[in-house]
Amino acid sequence: MLTFTKTFYLKDKQHQINPDTWIKNYADYMYNYTIQRVNNHEKAQDIVQDTFLAALKAKANYKGEASERTWLIAILKRKIIDYYRKSNSKKGKAEVRMNYINTDEQEGDWLEERVADHKGNNTDFDLDNDDLSQTLEDCIDNLPVKQATVFRMKTLQEMESQDICNELDISSSNLWVIIHRARVQLMECMEINWYN
Amino acid sequence: MSNKNIKKGFISCHEAGNICDRSQYKESSLWERIKLEMHILWCVKCNAYVKKNSMLSKLLKTHADEHSTHHLPKEKKEELEELIKSEK
Questions:
Q1: Does B21 contact A27 at a Cβ distance shorter than 8 Å?
Q2: What pLDDT does residue A111 have?
Q3: Which ipTM value was assigned to this complex?
Q4: Average pLDDT of chain A?
Q5: pLDDT in tens, A117-140
Q6: pLDDT per residue over A79-90, tens digit each?
Q7: How far is A160 from chain B (nearest CA, A)?
Q8: Residue A124: is it exposed, middle or buried by C-beta count within 10 angstroms (0-12/13-18/19+)?
Q9: Nearest CA to B20 among A116, A143, A154, A180?
Q10: B88 CB near a chain A CB, below 8 Å?
Q11: CA torsion, points A31, A102, A160, A177, in degrees to nearest 10?
């Protein structure tokens, strides 16, 4: 019964494909996804690029059953696996990779420190995060296009309200109405697909 | 209490919802939050909304911590956009 509700709720929308919005909507998400698994900024960029190219070629096969993002991530996963196959065959053996990210300002910080910082406030949300992200993104994708765009800009890209209003040519009160509607829908969607 | 005072201290559910939304982005004033707190003392519906809304914010934050720590460099994004345009 629950599975039925879930499938029903998330699939009542026919998804469209539009390569022009890929970079804006998914590039950062895919880049993060890749870095967590590949742990090399340059390689991650290459993999994301390969994914977009592969997606363009496979565009005709997209049936609109899954959301654009889910579909892109599916291709990305394959590309990441390909990358590991190649690097392993070169070296002839598997290599243990730690998720140790080296950026300029954090050089020398070990994994434990980063993790502690991360989870500090979220002890009561010790859940499978990948699944959480998946559900959240699915729910956001399921919003009407305009709500999803505004919500992403405001919440995930943390843009200033004024900048969003200017870019989309909407008034401030209009912005908050859109955000309100998006949040109400998201709460409902999360309640059905996450808490149950 | 005169009508004016009532207007000052008490807010409608509509306004409460708006303050609650803005609070999720830290864009509400202290006085607004006090008014909201007073409102949800007696308004069951808004109380539930505030709880759900902050729960959603927590989930979103967990999500953002996981997935928004890195940004693809701007030049790379532009390069990719060009690439997509030419390949389309």
A1: no
A2: 44
A3: 0.76
A4: 75
A5: 333 333 333 344 567 888 888 888
A6: 888 888 887 776
A7: 10
A8: exposed
A9: A180
A10: yes
A11: 50
Name residues of chain B where pLDDT drops below 50. Answer: 1
Phi, psi of A80 (to 5 degrees): -65, -40
* Cβ atoms of B42 and B16 closer than 8 Å: no
Sign, Cα dihedral of B77, B81, B87, B88: positive
A49/B27 CB distance under 8 A: no
Compute the distance between CA of residue A126 and CA of residue A119 in angstroms, rounded to an integer: 8
Task: Give the CA distances from residue A147 to residues A47, A83, B11, B35, in Å, rounded to whole numbers and listed in that order.
Answer: 30, 36, 26, 28
d(CA B41, CA B43): 6
How sure is the predictor about A10, in pLDDT bands with cuts at 50, 70 and 90? low
Pick the closest to residue A103 from A114, A116, A94, A88 (CA basis).
A114
Residue type at position A172: S
**Is B87 within 8 Å of A56 (Cβ atoms)?**
yes
Residue in chain B nearest A60 by alpha carbon: B88
Q: Which of B25, B52, B72 sits opposite A31 (nearest CB)?
A: B72
Shortest CA gap A27–chain B (Å)? 7
Tell me the domains of chain A and their CATH numbers.
14-126 (1.10.1740.10), 128-196 (1.10.10.10)
**Cβ–Cβ of B60/A136 closer than 8 Å?**
yes
A183 touching B, CB under 8 A? yes
A4 interface with B at CB cutoff 8 Å: no
Distance of CA A137 to the CA centre of its chain: 6
Give, for B42, the enclosing helix (H) or strand (E).
Answer: helix B30-42
Q: Between residues B83 and A178, which one has the greater pLDDT? A: A178
Nearest one of A136, A160, A162, A140 to A151, comparing CA atoms: A140
